[in-house]
Amino acid sequence: MAASPTAVTEQASLDDIVVVARRAQERLQDVPISITAISAETIKTAQISQGSDLIRLVPTLNVQQSSTGPGQSYSLRGIRTGVITYFNEVPTSTNAVNNQMWDLESVQALAGPQGTLFGRNSTGGAILFVPARPTGEFEGSVELGYGNYDWRQATAVLNLPVADAVSLRVGGRIVRRDGVVKNEIGPDFQSQHRDSFRASLLLEPGSVFSNYTVFDYTDVNEAPGALITSNVRPTAGCFPGLGCLYGTQPAELGAIQDELGIRRVRSRYPAIQDSKEWGVTNIAAIEPTEGITLKYVFGLRRSSYNRFTNQTTLDLPIQIGNNFQDFGRVISHEVQALGNVLDGRLNWAIGIFRSKQESRGGLSYSLFGNPNLPFSNDRNNFTTINQSQTTTGVYGQATITLADGLNVTGGLRFNKDKAALLTSSVGPQFTFFGPQICRFSPTAPGVDFANCTRSISDNYDAVTYNFSVDYRVSSAMLLYVTTRRGYNSGGFNPSVPASQEPSAPQPSFGPEYIRDYEAGIKADWHIGSMPVRTNLSGFYGKYSSIQRSTFGVSSTGATFIGTSNGPKATIYGFQLESTIRPAPGFLLNANYGLLETRYDEGSPGFPKGNAFAQAPKHTVNLSASYTHDLGNAGKLVASTGFTYQSRISFQDDNLGSSLAFQKGYSIVDARLGMSDIGETGLSASLFVKNLTNEAYALERQDLVNAFGFAGTIYNDPRTFGLEIGYRFGAN
């Protein structure tokens, strides 16, 4: 099955991607772990513009939209809390990378625990966003786009060789779009208003030293997705001893919403998402002697946000309020040494990582408020939140070649985390009305009742490891087996009141652990003269104290989401990624993921035998692209993609609730364009996303038992448009 050396070289030159899964540049086909690597060209043809688009390319990936704050949560192999996003080798927030998905060199999704070489410990995986580096050439591009819902986008990139050893790359993107959920009596929902900027500076004064700095900035001021209200009961808003606070209005308004459907609402209560974020990363590397490299990786990120929402689309202040963060800061330092000895037969890496994350914010909400009174912190449930987390990791890993083609890798990491929380919480004395009183129990740990504050902290530590054996059967085929132990730190749920029901999130949660096993094959081969690449991996993992995002309702009736520890659990499955080039210019890709998840034991909120929430059993990604050279006229470029995800649930405790599930759905995208028209550098493309106008839920909150209704955020409808671009200079 192995291809000839000539064919391997040809195939590698067509679509090979350099990855940094082991903190050094390697060919994708040489790394003995499961990686989905997405090139800059694929990002363009697959129309990847935000995090939720990655489900079109990555097996077992699911992306959930937050209903309470900025950003999205990524789930790989059914695991959400343990997936870390990185930008230029530094762990960062999903909100930051979601708005910097332009001018990228690649996106790399690493499935499974990444608890040895990477900065932050993780149990589910890591997604690496690699920005395009400055080059020594003068080049640039400008691209303008227009589409339905008055979508407008402008992107510009300029690369400048400042001096012989200095290169600068700057760029920016502006996005505007009307809301896709129309509001008949107020501002629309689910709009886009995003400004982002990036500047990169590369210094290479000699062959042994380099310094690479990236600055990024994002400003978002838009309306988030609406929680479309459904399943409104006649008793919604009715409570024992209080009666029905809004009479029959909730049921009447619910009937109106049912008639309006999922793309229209009638609500005077707006939704606002305003966030600002900037970051600096710096990577300094020096080679003091041949075979040894010293690296220092620095990261600084500052952020703030305010998100005001109504938890329903009914024209009533049932639960309106804002989550806000006045100050957020993350500082990280990593010192690393890499080297090889024994004529390259032993490659090693050692390092230390330390980060400190701090934030100051809170939430203010009115619960079943008076429609005739203005929103006011003085009457609301009002909580302030100051929290910090310090992470330290010391690690080492080595790979030795025992025989021709046979390599053994071992890695060990010592992890230590400290989390601290200072919070205050007041609310109406009679749940929905009355003077504000302290919401803490005087006897709860860490409570200073006189000042209505709670101060708690905790420490967590663990040892994680990685051990693998890989064997290169030929230059075109790699076999590997690996086992890993992963750990995800414990912490606090700052918005969760004390003393909740066992099935609801608690004020704190403990660490999560996993031991996993993976075996795989990476092969380049041929069907006749057609080059084929096939990467297949199977995995099996055992979790203890698994961390899951769960939902609860407080004794005062407020809804909240937090992290809970579940019982022992098992995941297993496989993923297949294949590429074939049937003819010059014609490329086919097919990815498939099979994921089985279950709770081996039962506990409140986690029924024994249940599958995980946000864990589709089947994921399918199919794509085709064709490039035809028209000579001086330019190149014709056509592409299409098909994505399928099977049924998922939104709650781990999903027995007997149809609202807990989203049925399987498929997405079809297409793009047709011309590049380098008349050898002028001009390009033009027509595109459509979600061609069949498929509707599916991104997030759902089932409040039927608590409040008498449910709320769902849906995906974007069919969008289409035109993009015109111009490239100049060396590219």
TrEMBL record:
TonB-dependent receptor plug domain segment(s): 28-126
Membrane topology: Multi-pass membrane protein
Domain TonB-dependent receptor-like beta-barrel positions: 264-691
Source organism, top-level taxon: Bacteria
Predominant location: membrane
Keyword Transmembrane: yes
Compartment annotation: Cell outer membrane
One Gene Ontology term, aspect cellular component: cell outer membrane
This protein's record includes keyword Amino-acid biosynthesis: no
Record keywords: Cell outer membrane, Ion transport, Iron, Iron transport, Membrane, TonB box, Transmembrane, Transmembrane beta strand, Transport
Listed CDD domains: ligand_gated_channel
Family under the similarity heading: Belongs to the TonB-dependent receptor family.
Designated name of the protein: TonB-dependent receptor
Native source species: Sphingobium baderi
